[in-house]
Amino acid sequence: xxxxxxxxxxxxxxxxxxxxxxxxxxxxxxxxxxxxxxxxxxxxxxxxxxxxxxxxxxxxxxxxxxxxxxxxxxxxxxxxxxxxxxxxxxxxxxxxxxxxxxxxxxxxxxxxxxxxxxxxxxxxxxxxxxxxxxxxxxxxxxxxxxxxxxxxxxxxxxxxxxxxxxxxxxxxxxxxxxxxxxxxxxxxxxxxxxxxxxxxxxxxxxxxxxxxxxxxxxxxxxxxxxxxxxxxxxxxxxxxx
Length: 241
Hints:
The structure is a single chain. This protein is of the alpha+beta class. It is 37% helix and 25% strand. It contains seven helices and nine strands; from the N terminus they run βαββααβαββαβαββα. The protein has helices at 15-30, 59-70, 73-78, 96-113, 147-159, 177-186, 226-240; strands at residues 2-9, 35-42, 49-56, 82-88, 120-125, 128-134, 168-173, 190-195, 219-222. The chain has a five-stranded mixed β-sheet. Strand 2 (35-42) and strand 3 (49-56) form a beta hairpin. Helix 5 (147-159) runs parallel beside helix 6. The two termini are 30 Å apart.
């Protein structure tokens, strides 16, 4: 994952034009396939600056973004603005888990768009996605319609089997107790999640499986794109306050 953080200084005479151009710039960037997170907001400590935070899946995705911006209206407008950026991760390889988690994040965005808590999940078997889902208990009037449950249901239907041996579930946020129970019953092989859920997480935050004599155990991998997954949650709840 490639991340960039810093500031861009906007001349006073250009602030209105910059603010107007920024709307399209943010929308286009967030729509890019490799964009995980993108935010440009006024800096409360310095009225002449905007704070910039962005994350891209890979160096190639970051380079493609830079190329598009250089040839865009935003690039033309801001080419002479002063910038102070720090970039990290340009030499880091992209793992298969990160690639699938990116797709789960896109599902989380679908949840957020309809007012649901932004959690996305998908089930992968032999390198193929066989189920996907996002949080929809409110819109579906279904208390069990967490992202993991929706994805598991779809995968089970796809396989014509309520057991999913060898399958991997990817989810942006640590599963709750209900979802952990479903994962045990589904006999998945691995569960990969992004950010911890300190209040309701039932794998690491409040481990439940190890405290009970269940007849199935699965591998747990945490922290895949955790910062980005956590930011989705933070942004969602900050807008609701």
